[in-house]
Amino acid sequence: ALYVVNIERNGKIIYTWKGNQRNTHIGLYDLQTKQNEHLYVFEKDLHIISCSVNNERTLLAVSFCQYTEEERASQLLQSVSKYLTLLIEIHPINNVRVLKAVDSSVRVQFLYPVEGRSSSTKSRLLLVSEDKYIEQFDIRVVVEEEHKVVIQRPGQLPRAKVVDDLVWAQWDMMEQRLFYIVPKESKSTLRCVQFYPDENFNSILESHLDIAVNDKQLKLVNFGYDYCQDQDVASKSLNLQVFTSKAGGLCMCCSLASDIPHEIMYSIYFLHKGYNKTFTVSLERTESHQLKEVAFMNLDYYVAAYLPGQFLHLLNIQHPDLLCYSLFLTGEDARIDTLQNCSIRSPWVSTALDCEAGSLYDVSISDSALLQFLQKSKRDYERLAALHCALLYFQHTEDLEMQIIQWISENMSTCHSFDPIQEFIIASLYCRMCPETQNLDKLLPYTSLHDWIGVVPGVICATDIISLPVLEFQNSKGFWEKLNSNLESVKYAEPHLHYQSNVLRKEWRNLSEEVRNILFGLLFSSFCDFRLFTNQREERRTTAYLRNIFENAKKYVLARLVPLFEEEDYQQQLLMGLMVAQLKDHLMRHLQYVGKKKIDQIVLDYVANLLNLVHRIMKEVWRRYQLHSCVFCFDEKGSAGEFAVFHIMSRILEAANGMCMPLPPGFHTLHLGLGVRCLPLHTLLHYIDNGVLQLTETCVRKLLKDLDDTEQNEKLKFSIVMRLPEALGQKVRQHWNHPINANLIARKYVKLLLEKLGNRQCSRPIPERLSVPVEFLPLNYLTNMLTEIENQGVHPCEKQDHVNARFVEETALKHTMTLLGLKYS
Question: Nearest Cα to 667, choosing from 561, 538, 592, 769?
């Protein structure tokens, strides 16, 4: 049988096996080349405890047990140490040096330099003693005749004490770190030593824990694998592991004793967040033969807590505050076929070692299985966790996005505690933007939820505040720099660092009213013309700010979009520009070192990607229901597919309003067009009155021009026209050639003309008696008065030349003749 005894940093596996004559062989397997290499053989049956080979494969360190307790009892007169630790020259096989001959077990581990470094004549070896200390040996080699490598001065190997009085230690082979725990009164202290390529090492981290570890036997993690000894130690020591993530996460996982037979307890210390969560899990089945110890695995973004046959919990490291972003799987969903009822270790990220079988596995979350789980899930916490995992754990692909959008369109009405559209947009933006700039993940929102008060069946979670770790060595790079940034954000700012839309919503409402007044004052001339307002001293400051906001939207954001319809939507442009301005201010406060140009690019990318995501949802929904341009033929009723798309667009609008999020140009026009086709008149008007549907110039103009004037259509047109905002009404009413509309236009004209007369304090004209074709004295008087006012240069409808005093006169006569039942000619 083969037994895995160690895995080195370069991924090479050291294993042992017994030969035909009961010789003990040591071999090396290369995961990259799939090649085996024989390293050494002992011509006797030995129990290898620990083994390590240096990076150049010139030295082999071996620790083994010379005999069992029964063999020692039969050799009472011999005074021989039980454990022997050897240093062997293997290039070629030559001298053997005894490093330790003691009665306590020893583990060995060579340090490895950074990848790509050329061969060195110096190696460093860690010796970890069962007597609770670790020391480092410095070993120099020289090359003699024909590439023969031998140890220089083997009798005088320099050594240094690394740590003393420890009760637990873990080796991080990939990053060359040593985590260890030392007892301290009623509590314990977790520390970390970082080993560097320049042959130095520093104590870099200290964290005080509320774990009592006194009188516990030494437990070693990832210092080789001796299954028999590890099983014996496991019952007397801590089941504890430390995991790190690329984003600067630092977690400590610990199994806890439970007095209740059918319960399992474990804690996850999120050291980079300053709290720990203790989980109490009620087991579905309590067969006596099943393992009762939780195995922990590092998946970088998640920590997996796995009890074969019972549960698989994927606990979010980066965003652990809300339980709904962790996956709690049971039954068949929690089954890992190759890891059933076995002792599991996690040597490095996304790997699992079956210590009994000696099998090493890559461990990852299956995207297809996750999507299947999302499809069949009925509970909100499961859906949230699966959706979050799909959007933030996996790399974004067009196919994955399409499947998620399809799921959202089918299930948006069944999600009660969250809005799936909001989650999709915010999480997608977070995933796309954060890799671009360091610390951006602390400033952009990753969820639409502020809190989650749901429960996970069978799982009780208790949260406790713990002290933050202290970094003892400053100006470190890589992981330690990211961890320090995480600790600083928790210490001083979190959760207030994340961008929120509360201020944006308030300012948008205020400025929307400002824009509405300006546009009404200009009778809806193009917005460029609103610069005329800057001549008024009291409006100058507000108008300059508004101009800048609109230029942000037009010049930078809209220029990068493919609109649903080409139209001017000033409300959405205002919201886009405001979001650009406020998000820029937010990032400038916290990312000053990045520079203004880079922040401008981040902000514009964020808003443009936001609008493109909505466009992407629309595109997928449009394609799914096979809609085409006929949605703007108002003489037909909408199909079932159109109604489904209308419902989805209504939910998109609701999601956008909830987040104060802009929508792409043409969205409201398309939404209104579908509403006209799909809804009965009273429902359509109800949606308009309640702000669900917004009247746009493009859609209203087409509706007034394309529909004939049947009784039903007249009722629709009149209802729409009466609900138009003042400025928009002035623009589009001219496209409906109908007495009712002409009457409305005439009334508005007279009202505006008289209001302007009052504002200008003109002297009231005294009309002369003019010869007019119709002798209708009240109308004659009004017409003459309006003509005189127009002659003074007051004309409220400069863009509508046909609307004048003569137009008012003709409209009044037509309306009167119609009321009298007479024919006008």
Answer: 561
